[in-house]
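[agent] plan:
  1. take the single chain provided in the ticket
  2. run structure prediction with default settings
  3. attach structure tokens to the ticket
  4. add a short note for the reviewer (M.T.)
[agent] executing step 1
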Amino acid sequence: MKILLKSRKNNKNTCQEEKIMYSEKVMDHFQHPRNVGEIENASGVGTVGNAKCGDIMRIFLDIDDETHIIKDCKFKTFGCGAAVATSSMATELVMGKTIEEAMEVTNKAVMEALDGLPPVKIHCSLLAEEAIHAALWDYAEKHHIKIEGLSKPKSDIHEGEEDTEEEY
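[agent] step 2 finished; step 3 output follows
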């Protein structure tokens, strides 16, 4: 079952109404997001965003230094409902996984776990994947380790350009 949600913001930041169909899982993770918040003294923190759409995601990881298992994962996201939902789902997908397993969590895995995203919101799942990788990069930098397949995150976040719809 899909749920129709009307949005007043399009990709040009104008107030033009558009209709977007979301799955029940997306709506559940948007309305009742899991793992919202920050982890004090986090092992790794990753912040990514898309200045064009205004979505900013920050993922916090608590990683066991011996086993490399993610003990806790939290997020703070500024953006649309799909950005909140993908952040929420991403935290659930990496919790309890090793660093190597977390590296395998892709935007496609996030979308599948949410029963899909509208084409105009796929970029939110990409941001979730990038936020996980950015947090893992931060962990690797702090601990002077190399994580296979991980490259330095790129960012197009620009201070003062946050045009947000929801904050969690």
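[agent] step 4 note for reviewer: The longest helix spans residues 122-143.
[agent] ticket updated
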